[in-house]
Structure formats: structure tokens, C-alpha cells
Amino acid sequence: MKVLVTFAVEAEFAPWRKLRKFRFIDYRGLRLWRSDAGNVEITALVTGMGAEAAAQAMDLMMKMADGDQYFDVCISSGLAGALAESLAVEEIIAPQGLVVEQKHAHQTSERMEVDAELRSQALELGAKCTDCLFTTDQVLVKAEQKRNCSSKAQAVDMESFEIVKQACAWGARAVVIRAISDSAKEDLPINFNLTLSGEKQVSVGKVVLELAKNPLRLPSLLRFAKQSRRAAGALANFLEKYVPALAGIATSNRSEAVGAR
Fold it and tell me: β-strands 155-157, 111-113: how paired?
């Protein structure tokens, strides 16, 4: 079985890379790591933050494919922000559905559901059951922004809808496994929307520039970095037991629940 696991930034993937031996692959600028867990071949992909970066990375993965269905399973992984107050930092979530931010008021909301069997496996291993994940093109920096979006979903990220959509178009089975990095009630210490590099990774230099605008934010930034590392570590531990367990799931039985509606 071939499993693709995506992360937005390298910091989300780093704890898992420390847990198992991955070999690096550079394909046309794609940053890929590969490992084996029994008869499961794992490919980890760092896409960059946001739907556009995710779409470009997934498109390159298609070009790299050596068959009609290069991956049997795609897992959109990484960190997510809580929109529901019931979600705590470091909790692992497995949402049933995904919704995406609509750019125009006249557009109808599109919901997509993940593979039911893959999600059930995650829940059995301890992931928290949530109904929906909201994908937006901006980091929600303020608690007020999170409250305004809380009617849409229980958590928020910037890539999962596009990743699952692309994976389903390949014919792969898809699921979302995310760790909560920030609670619904907390403001982020700086505006991370202003810190992205051209590769859609967090730029240390731009973080320093943002911090220079308000040096008193340093303690809260250090606290946020620490809790994000803990969340990424919890995610790594979960993936380390979840992905090998997928070997027992049939590769030819694509869930009928997957798809946009």
C-alpha cells in the first residue's frame, strides 16, 4: 500500500521524521521523504501553507506518478486551530467533513466528506470525533475571527480541502488527521500571514520583523512555539501508530462517502 501524508510546513513534520528513518527525495523542487512500515510505503510531502501551495504541490505529485493511481491513501496532516472551545491544544482530530471559504457571497457552500473507513480507524486509535474542518486562505490570528467562523466548523486549517479534493480526483482514498495548535479563545502572538516566504514557509526573518514591531510579544510567541511543538509531537506519535495500521485496509475499496456535494 502506498500512503501519502502531507504537511504544510517542515516544523509540523519534523517530530515524525525523528521517530522513524525517512530518506529524502527532491523532485522538481518538491520536498519529499519516504519510509517503509511493513508493506506500507510512506511518502511525506511538505506543501507550503495555503490552498494554492497545496494545489501546486499535489499537481507535481501527479506528474511524478508512475501509474494511474500513485497513492492508495492520502492523509492531510499537520496542525489546525480550534474554533470550538471544547477542543484543547495537542488533541488529535479526525473530521468527518470539510468546507472551504467562499470568495463570493453568491457561491454555494461546498462540503466534502473523507473516507469513512479511514476515519473510523483514526477514531479507534484515539482521535477526537469532529464534524467539520474549515479551510481558509488566511491564518485566523484573533480569537474574534475564530468565533466568527465557529458556526462553520470545529477547527480550521489552510490546506485540507484542496488536498482531499485533489486526492479524490486521483482515485485515492483520503482522510484528515490534524493536531490542535491553538485554542479557540487565544489570539496568536503575531500576524503569521505576514511572515510567509516565497515558498509559503514561515520565514524566521519575517517573524523577527513582526516581533520588532512589538517586542513585548516575545513571551507569548515562545509559549505558542512550545505548544505548537507539543502538538506536532502528539501528531507524530499518532501517525506512527495510525499509518502502519492502514495495512489492514483494502486498497481497492474506495469509500462511497468521499466526494463533494
Answer: unpaired
Q: Is 57 domain-assigned?
A: yes
> Of 240, 242, 245, whose CA–CA distance to 15 is shortest?
240
Pairing of strands 173-182, 73-82: parallel
CATH number of the domain bearing residue 114: 3.40.50.1580
**194 inside domain:** no
Task: Please tell me the distance from the alpha carbon of residue 169 to that of residue 179, in angstroms, as a whole number.
Answer: 25
Cell of residue 204, nine digits: 524566521
DSSP summary character for residue 148: H
Q: Count the domains in the chain.
A: 1
For residues 135 and 145, give the distance between their C-alpha atoms in angstroms, rounded to a whole number.
14
d(CA 85, CA 228): 17
Supply φ then ψ for residue 133, to 5 degrees: -120, 135
Cα–Cα distance measured from residue 79 to residue 93, given in angstroms and rounded to the nearest whole number: 10
Per-residue pLDDT of the chain (261 residues; tens, 9 = 90+): 999 999 999 999 999 999 999 999 887 778 899 999 988 999 999 999 998 999 999 988 877 765 545 789 999 999 999 999 999 999 999 999 999 987 655 555 688 999 999 999 999 999 999 999 999 989 999 999 999 999 999 999 999 999 999 999 888 999 999 999 999 999 999 989 888 887 888 888 998 998 999 999 999 999 999 999 999 999 999 999 999 999 877 654 444 434 444
Please tell me the distance from the alpha carbon of residue 183 to that of residue 118, in angstroms, as a whole number: 26
